Each structure stands twice: as C-alpha cells, then as structure tokens.
Amino acid sequence: MSARLVLRLAPLVLVAACATLGGDGKGDVDLPNAGVGPFRKLGSSECLGTAPFLLDDAQAHYRDPGAIALTPGAGPAVALYLVADRDVGGQSRQVIVRSRATDARSFFGGRGGQLPPIAVQADAPWEGTAVSGPAPLAVDGGIWLYYAGDGGIGLARSSDGIVFTKVAQPVLASDASHAWHAPTVARFPDGRYHLVVAANGSLFESVSTSGDAFPAPVEILAPTAFSTDAGPVVEGIDDPVALVRVTAAGRTHLRVLYTQTIDTKSAIALAARYGDDGPLVHSSTGPVYSATETQRSPAVAELGDYTMLYVSDVRRSTSYPSIAGAVGPALTVLPAPDDYPKSP
Amino acid sequence: MRRALSSACSVGLALAVALFARRASANPMDAFGFGSRGPAMGNAVSADVVDVSAGYYNPAGLARAPGIELSVGYFRTSHFLSMNGKDNEVDPVGGLVGGIVLPGKILGIPVAFGVAVHLPDDRISRVRALRQEQPRWELYDNRNQRLFLAANLAISPWPWLQLGGGISFMSSTAGRLDITGSANIFNATQSQLRHEVDAYLTAVRYPQVGARVELSKRAALALVYRGEFRLELDLHARLQGDLSQLTTAYYALAAYSINAFLPQQVVFGGSFLPHDRVRVNADLTWVNWGAYIPPVATLTAALDIPPPQGGWPPGITPPSQPTPTAIVLPRFSDRLVPHVGVEVKALDLPHWEVDVRGGWEWARTPIGSQTGITNYIDRDRHTFSLGAGIRLIAPGKFLPGDLRLDFHTSFSWLPTSVTTKADPTDVVGDYSAGGTLWSGGVNLAVGFR
Q: Residue B16 belongs to what H/E stretch?
C-alpha cells in the first residue's frame, strides 16, 4: 500500500520540483567604486516630483547647488545650498538658500509653500550685489560655506548649517587677471584645505592650513581640444566640485567633477589625480553624466554605497533652471523616496 | 522544502540523462572537483580513480572498475569573496553529483562505459554579459553556474594500460529581438511598440581523453587531456518605427560574446603506495588560460534617423550613432596547478574499511594585474582538504558488492591584495580583494560485484 502511494506521488514530486526556479544571480553586491559615476538620472519611482527634478520653482530659479552629507556613514540625509532669486527689500536678489532631505532626494522646498531660508546674501562691499557658487564643507561639527562674490571667494561659518557668520574679507581676492569664482574646498587627510576655483576657462588650486586665507592658486586643469563635425573645439571648464579620499592602496585621490561645455552642449566631466599636489588628468572615457547635454554645475554627496549628483538643468516644459538628481554607480537601486521634511 | 523538490527533480533528470544521453557535457568541476574522494585528496587522483568520478578525472580509470557502480551525492561550495572588505555575495555552487559505471568484457578485453553528472541546485546554466569595467570574480561568479555531464568509454588492452575518452556538450544561445511600432517623442505614454523574440540553442561539444599506465603494483602514471569549450551568446535586436509621424527610425544592434570559456587542460599524474596502508598521489595540471576569452559583448550598432522635412522641432535632438565599445583584451597566462593527496587506510576489517584523506592544491591566478579599465578579479588560491571514506564489504544478501560512503570538506584561501589603477579618473579606482571558499560534500556509492 505504502509502496503504491510512493509510486503515485513520485511523478507529482518530480513535476513540482521542476517548477522551482533559481533565484536572481548575485556576485555584484558592494562592488568598489571611486564615487564619481558613471551616473544615471533618477527615475520616476525615485523622486516625488517630475523625475529627475528635485527642486523646481518658477520664481526662485534654483541653480548652482552645493551638497553636503549630514550624517556620513549613518544615512542619506543631505543638505543643499543653492543659488536662488529671492525678493529682498523689494528687490530681486541672487542669494544662497539652504534645503535638506532625509533621503538625499526629497528636499525641503520641493512642496509648494515651503520656502528654504537664506543662508548667505551679499551685504559686504567686496561681494557686490550677488553671491554664487556655494560650497559647503564639514569642519569640526559645523559647516563652512565657501561662496563667490564680485571680489573673490568668501567664507561663512555655521554651527547648525542654517545661520551663518561671514568672514569679513574674502579668503581669496580676485586680481586683475583672475576673477575667481565657483569655489570648492576639500580637506585632505593631512588636515589642509585645498581650494579649487575657476577662472579664465581653467581650474586652479590653492592650499591653506587654516581654511580662511588662501595664497595665489596655481593652474591644475587647462582645457583640451575636442574634434567635432565643425572642426576642433576647445572645451569650456567651469563649476568644479572637489572630492578627496584615501584609496584602498593608501593613496590620496583628488577627484574633480566640472561642467564641460563643447559648442552649446554641456555635460558633467571628471578630472583627477593621485597625491597631494600636481595637475589633474582629464578622463579619457567621456563625461560621467550627460542625460540631455544641458546639465551644469555639479554637486556631490557621497553616501557610502552610492553617490548622489545634483546638477542645474532646465525642464523641457520650462525656460528656467531647476535642480535635477542622478545617482551612481548606475546600477544602484534606490528605495522609494521619503516625504518632504518639515524643516530645512 | 524547495531544496528537496529541486533535488527530486534532479534525480529524475539524472535518470533520464543516464538512460537517454549519448554524449554529455561541461563544468564547475575544474574549480572544485567531482564527488568526494577526489576533492578530499586535493583532486590528485588522475592515476588513481576507478569510480564514477573517473568521468571527470580520467576516463581511462573506468576500465579498472571491479563491477557495476551507482553513485549519488551532494556537493556545495560557498564563496566568501570580498572587495574593499565588503562581501560581494557571489552565488554558491551546489547540486547533485552522481553517475554510473558499467564495466564488461568484449573479446576478453575489459571495457567500461560511464556517465558522470553534476546537476546544479538553482540553474542548469546562467548567461551573464557584464561591462568590461564592472568588477567581477571572473573565475567564480558565473563560470561555475552550469551543468556538467560527461559520458565516456574506456578499454584496458593490457593489464598495465587503460585508455578512455568521451565527449561533452553544452548549448550556445542565439536569438533575435524585433521592435516595431510608433514612438511619440513628445509623450512617451502615447507610444505603441510591438516586440517579437526568437531564440534558439545550438550544441557545442568538447572532447576528453585519458591514459593510465601501471608501472607496478605500487605505482601508476596518468595523462589526461580535456578540450577547450566556448559557450557563445549571439543576440540581434532591431528597432524600426515611426517617430511622431515626423520620420522613420531604424536601429540595429548585434551583440556577440563568449559567455563561458573552458580552457583546454593537460593533467600529468602519479599514484604511489609507499606502504600497504598509505597512498600518495600527485597531479600537475597545465591550464591554457592564455587562450581565455572574457564574457564581454562585442556590440555593433547601426542607427539611421533621417531628419524630418523642415528639421527637428525645438528641443528635440536626435541621438547620434553609438560609439562601438572598444574591448580591452585581458592578460591571462597559462598556469601549472599542482595537486597533492594522501590516503591512509585507518581501519581494515573483513567487512569494514575506513580511509582517511587529505589534500592540497595551489592555483596561481592566471589573470594579470588589472591596472587599466578592466576588472577581472582573481587571487591565488590555496586549498586544503580533508575527508574520509567508509566501505562496507558485502553488507547483505541483496548487495554482494560493497557500499561506500565518502565525505569531504575543503577550505580555500585567496589572500587579500590591492589592485591599483594607473588612471586617477578610473571610476572603479583602487580596491582590495580576497576571501575564502568553503566546500563540502558527501557521496554514496553502491558497487555490484
């Protein structure tokens, strides 16, 4: 009786066993990455707004972001410092505002009615009437915000990232031949501050031990020529963002993303070097991000397993700049976005 | 439960294969061995194999089988391989192993037929084509995720000589994907596209031959050749459609890759009995890794989008012809892999025998330093193994032969070292890599004398 039962059940067992399928193959988890792409634009399931745009306002015209991870190694909270147009004293002024997201994507200000507060605005004679190029840096538990004014590069310090106190004079003053702008600062493992700035279509570097006064920079990246259908064209270089790390081999690794412009098309390109000083090397494999050839002004938040890239871009249906997001490595799978935070 | 069902299915497939297969196929065995006795002895058994595993180690050994033998077992290897200290979760390799040996005589000359099979738990085979920049454990990530099936014939024309050989096969994949329809470039949700898939499998074969020479009752030598094997993946995609009634776009893509490559190998082995109870084996395997072809797809693309009359609408920029991928050939080198095994008869009673085994092998990585854009990762592998075998001689009236239970475990160490990149703009950058592998298996064989 039992033998018959076994015989009758055996085919069912075999058929059922054949219906089992192997799982998805792995082997590509936690792969090494230098944190600079290649990036892919955010998808519709990864942002609350119209992907890949994260901050879009017809009055504020958010642009030229600077990013900082708020809880390094413990979550994806990110603060963005953005150039925005704001009514100040009855006049439209170009100021720097602060926003925040708990998931690196849903930023305060993304929902209507939320107004990111002003972090820095021009009020010193050397700044002129506008500030730009925010570059936040975490220093001793606070945030130092480098920015550009008419007369050079300025610095404002904050303990909470919202209320800033400016250093009275520029930390790097422009001169007759260099109108320094688009600052970015990386703190190297030896504690020194490396300021990378743009001027005259090139990138320059200056090193300081205090971070609040920089000597005359030296050129570290000059533009190269690219061949196009219309003949050779020299690239435009602007808006750098500098990132430093120590590699698995113990080498200091400076990576600089920048806006690369060829003809009328722009993309986010990479240059880098090993070591504490010396010129940067252009990437030989093309841009690290180029979704529609209109992206500019990169900002980066390194969040452990992945890196968020924020750029200025223009939606097809509008004519003003907005902030768009991308993530790298391109195979990164992001969870559903959080809700917008209730405070900046 | 799922594992049990899968195993039951595997048994069914194994029986079907044993009954109907005329020729057989290819392998995770190079990495981890076959059965339990061989892996326990560092896979140094080419001159000392008479059971089902001769279908992999040396087909000539089949001719020495004392009687019909049925064998079934289970084997598993877990990878703990990491980069920059983080586990990459490389899939384990595991599944049923088994087969049959059918010896006999023709005109008084001993001959034998054998089938050996490894049926993976999760998949018969896996196809994976990665970008050449993506880091991967080249020798462990995908190559071992496939079926091994070998059928061999052997003959012993003289008592001191055995010869054997067989054929293995796997299938290549070829296919076509057609997409046609209309695409709305202003509103993607209004696009209407149809697709058609046509895929088929084609057979690939490779040979294996072996010889064994018995120098004396205490010494034997062996020579084995295993042929090269390439598993191809050939895909074509074609897209043709109307773009918002402005123009017609045509896009053709052809992707070709060698999805799995098994290098040809030559094994020279010896087996010695320095003592009645002690056997010492040594194999040296030459692996032609220098011919390795990585599983990187060669892409050929053609794009034709004529501009509409009056030019493109504002804000619409047509894509340009994709730049073909420049494949960087990896630097692989041929390798000699030494294997050593020892077997000690710990217990020798009229109806019981117990053997204790140990082994070692050292596989230097064949992959050159990855300082460029490719990231085929591997490290030297030191493997230490242990095992035992229990043999019941004539355990009952239904089984006048013997019953053997073998089991083994092995530990492989891949020392961690750092790969440095020459180009500071490399998007992968420097990384450390290393890890361990743990293997284990058990095998039950029934011999009829």
A: helix B2-20
pLDDT of res. A4:
65
Inspect the interface and report whether the beta carbons of B8 and A32 lie closer than 8 Å: no
Q: Supply B249's token pair.
A: 């776009």
A8 in B contact zone (CB under 8 Å) = no
Statement: residue B1 has pLDDT above 70: no
Q: Which residue in the set A14, A30, A280 is minimally distant from B9, CB to CB?
A: A14
Positive/negative CA dihedral, B153, B157, B160, B161: negative
| Residue-wise DSSP of B80-129 | EEEETTEE--PPPEEEEEEEEEEEEEETTEEEEEEEEEEEESS-SB----
pLDDT, residue B236, reads 79
Whether residue A283 and residue B134 make contact (CB cut-off 8 A), yes or no, is no
The per-residue b/e assignment along B213-231, b for 16 or more CB within 10 angstroms, e otherwise, is bbeeeeebbbbbebbebeb
State the pLDDT at residue B304: 80
What residues of A are in contact with residue B377 (Cβ under 8 Å)? none
Whole-number Å distance between alpha carbons of A182 and B173: 53
CA distances for A110 relative to A40, A54, A118, A340, B239, angstroms = 21, 7, 16, 7, 38
pLDDT band of A173, cuts 50, 70, 90: very high
| DSSP sequence for A224-263 | -EEEETTEEEEPEEEEEEEEEEE-TTS-EEEEEEEEEEET
Chain A residues whose CB is inside 8 A of the B11 CB are 14
N residues, chain A: 344
Helix (H), strand (E), coil (C) string for B144-186 = CCECEEEEEEEEEEECCEEEEEEEEEEEEEEEEEEEEEEECCC
As a whole number of angstroms, the distance between CA B48 and CA B224 comes to 12
pTM of the model: 0.85
**Closest chain A residue to B422 measured between Cα atoms?**
A274
pLDDT of A211 > 90? The answer is yes
Q: What is the tens place of the pLDDT at every residue in B299-353?
A: 777 778 788 877 777 666 676 666 667 778 888 999 999 999 999 999 999 889 9
> Rounded to 10 degrees, what is the CA torsion of A217, A218, A220, A222?
100
Instruction: Closest CB to B9: pick one of A17, A35, A253.
Output: A17
- Give the Cα separation of B221 and A92 in Å (integer): 91
What is the DSSP track for A28-95? -SS----SS---EEPPTTT-SSSTTEEE--TTT--EEEEEEESSTTS---EEEEEEEEEEETTEEEEE
Assembly ipTM: 0.88
Candidates B127, B425, B431, B432, partner chain A, best to mutate (most A CBs within 10 A): B425
Is the distance from CB of B226 to CB of B27 less than 8 angstroms?
Answer: no
- For residue A307, give the chain B residue with the closest CA: B427
Residues B353-406 have pLDDT tens digits of 999 999 999 999 999 999 999 999 999 999 999 999 999 998 877 677 899 999
Tokens, residue B149: 């099936």
Q: Which two tokens stand for residue B320?
A: 């340009």
What is the SS3 assignment for A16?
helix
Predicted pLDDT of residue B18: 34
Contacts of A43 in chain B (CB under 8 A): none
Give B166's Cβ-side CA count (13 Å radius).
29
Beta bridge partners of A148: A132, A153
Report the pLDDT averaged over residues B12-17. Answer: 35
| Structure-model confidence comparison of residues B183 and A271, the more confident one | A271
